[in-house]
Please model this.
Amino acid sequence: MTNNIKKLGLLTSGGDSPGMNAAIRAVVRTAIYNDLQVFGIYRGYQGMIEGEITPMQTTDVANIMQRGGTILKTARSKDFMTDEGMKKAYEQVRQHSIDALVLIGGDGTFRGANKFFERYNIPAVGIPGTIDKDLLGTDTTIGFDTAANTAVEAIDKIRDTAEAHDRLFVVEVMGRDAGFIALHSGLASGAEDILIPEQKRDIEDVLCRIDKDERRKKHVHIIVVSEHDELGGGQKVFDSIKTRFPDLDTRLCILGHIQRGGSPSCADRVLAGRLGYGAVMALLQGKTQVMLGMINGAIAYTPFSNVIKSEPPISDDMLQMIRVLSS
Ligand code: F6P
Model:
């Protein structure tokens, strides 16, 4: 081990995601195993500013791996984006003699981190924890698998009742500006159409497909819509369908925050364990200002500034596949 890190600060920030607790457990236990002291920073950057910082022991993370949410709580801090907020946060870090930070969160977390570390040079590494899977530098993020499975389970249930009534359902899923939850849950539940922000679609095309299905007496139709798709989300798509086909029995279901909660899947727990362990080892090896990710099954390190540059693309092949499989 090559550096002098003794005290580690750990926080979760932005929208919570299932598996964050498993990552917290992995960080705390790896750090203590390596003779580091760990401080939990509560409510993300906001708690950092306000000094909500408490020492953590291995027993504090017992029996949390299977729980959704985050025991450290989380927040989207506006104050941290100001010069004064960042200064206060830094002062708290110094006051607690914290030598290095592990940050678990999504793009907002790394946007904040990038600014903070440009100003105050303190070693830090990031762990991608978001249901949206919208970060460069990793094939997936902690919580995505669980959230996509929650959506699939919900859509399967919706299909049961849709079949019983011969109904058309518009199901809106989360994902912010990324369509991965819609894409994966739509493909896995056999959705008749999938609308995502990454693919420009004409509403006429969507309506035409419904019309075609109706003509061949296929009345059950499930359209999975990403909350920020090009056509304006579930409500807008629903309204357009209602206007064009007033006699169709159509319903809108917005899945919402159920996608953020629940017990993490096996895949998310393993990912959280690998990245949590890897984050502490990376700091001890002198790596800093990078987010850990998993690329082709191996840990990869991407500078914070690159992680937030843009969103990972969805391949043309995948987009074509939606068209074919949902036809
Ligand atoms: O980033 C995670 C996420 O759940 C997005 O999918 C969604 O757009 C957003 O957070 C919702 O944020 P909030 O919980 O603050 O309403």
